[in-house]
Design goal:
Shape: globular
Structural class: alpha+beta
Number of strands: 3
Low-confidence stretches: none
Radius of gyration: 16 Å
Number of helices: 4
Strand order of the largest sheet: 1-2-3
Helix content: 25-40%
Length: 143
């Protein structure tokens, strides 16, 4: 955890997101309350501070780029002939306090999930109709 906390302190501010973790399943992004704790302390105390944190693009850090590349090199043979293969190597680290909820969202990429400690329930949902799906996908792609 100390290595992850130090990574949080090294990454640019726009690559570290942290919020209070007691959230509903669906929430507007601008309605999420951020923690005022320093990012390293959020990571160090994630077991007790009631927060949720994501460290984005860990491949920008040499130590974590090596770890990411070693991990993805092992997976590459299994995805080489699927979905166009592996095209961009990016890594995100998620930390969450016990009982926290990550609100419903869409990801613009395919993901490998690796749970390192604790347990997590992951749900994959469906859009209520084709129109909503199209609107969300357009917003995700166009920003």
């Amino acid at each position: 955890m100390e290595s992850i906390a130090k990574l949080a302190e090294r990454l640019p501010e726009d690559r570290v997101e942290h919020n209070i973790a007691n959230l509903p399943k669906i929430v507007a992004p601008d309605a999420v309350q951020r923690s005022d704790q320093p990012v390293g302390e959020i990571a160090r105390n994630i077991d007790t501070n009631g927060c949720w944190m994501v460290l984005k693009n860990i491949e920008r850090d040499p130590e974590f780029k090596q770890l990411l590349d070693e991990s993805l090199d092992e997976a590459a043979p299994y995805v080489r002939d699927r979905e166009g293969g592996m095209t961009e190597r990016e890594g995100f680290i998620f930390l969450s306090a016990p009982g926290s909820m990550t609100p419903s969202h869409t990801d613009p990429e395919h993901n490998f999930l690796l749970q390192v400690r604790g347990t997590k329930k992951m749900y994959v949902g469906h859009f209520p109709d084709d129109e909503t799906q199209q609107l969300v996908l357009e917003d995700t792609v166009s920003g």
